[in-house]
Amino acid sequence: MDDPNARIDPGAIKHPGWTAAGVIVMLAVIVAGVVLWARGSSEAVRISEPSLGAPVTLDGGRTAIPVEATIANQSDEPIRVTELKVDVLSSRRVGACFTAPPEPDTVTGTYSVALPMQAGVPTTGVTTVPYTAEVPAGTGGRLAFTVGPQTQDAGTVIVTVFRPVVVLDDGAELGLPSVATATTPEGVQRYVDGVQALTAAERAAQSACAGGELATFDDVYGTSSLQDEPLKRLRESYTELAGKN
Asked: How far apart are CA 182 and CA 191, in angstroms?
């Protein structure tokens, strides 16, 4: 980066979350956190309280889990966010370990960061989008954004591991650790309901399918710091079906 003070520190936080497209809630306090970038010897930007938020509704009625984090501005100048970068580390479909009825609908949503697709899943690499927010001097601001595929089959669950980066107006970057999400929450619930509806004989027949998918979940958990609740529910359901609990 051009600014020698700017740096990415992907391990400094545990995770972020956001509401739909570019929401920032200003806080009246300075929030303690990990210094990721400093303007000078007496001025610092801190980021803390990473989390995954409650579901928010996208256009079309589907929901998404937002990534959230707090930026605390301890300087005497405002901090301006201009872009979001999302580096997709991996993305894959989760096999349906039950007899899934046809689901022809295509899901499209207005995610804050809509990831380009290849072969039905988000492509690996960096996607950059404009994102405008400001944290006044001596205050803190809560950032929130959603990340998801540009489009996907309604009947398919896609698990994506990505690392977000918040870009400031002077080119400095605030890096967040990796996040794993399962889209869509409605699709996940369909999978969970399908597994729960299996008879004893069907569960025995699908056990190997679920066991194979657990390797995917293990890899996702091993490469992410935060996982959303739909992904956790799906992993628990498949663990039970595979007889691994």
From this structure: 11
The secondary structure of 145-210 as a DSSP string is E-EEES-EETT-EEEEEEEEEEEETTS-EEE---EEEEE-HHHHHHHHHHHHT--HHHHHHHHHHH
pLDDT (average), residues 3-29: 32
* Dist CA 175 CA 181 (whole Å): 18
The bridge status of strand 226-227 relative to strand 179-183 is parallel
How far CA 159 is from CA of 79, 88, 229, in Å, comes to 33, 11, 12
Total number of residues shown for the chain: 245
Asked if residue 153 lies in contact with residue 108, where contact means CB atoms within 8 angstroms, the answer is no
For residue 80, what are the CA distances in angstroms to 7, 9, 24, 168?
Answer: 16, 19, 12, 6
44-48, 167-171, 213-217, 219-223: least confidently modelled range: 44-48
Nearest to 158 by CA among 128, 188, 190, 116: 188
> Dihedrals φ, ψ of 155, to 5°?
-90, 5
Sign of dihedral through CA atoms 33, 124, 60, 55?
negative
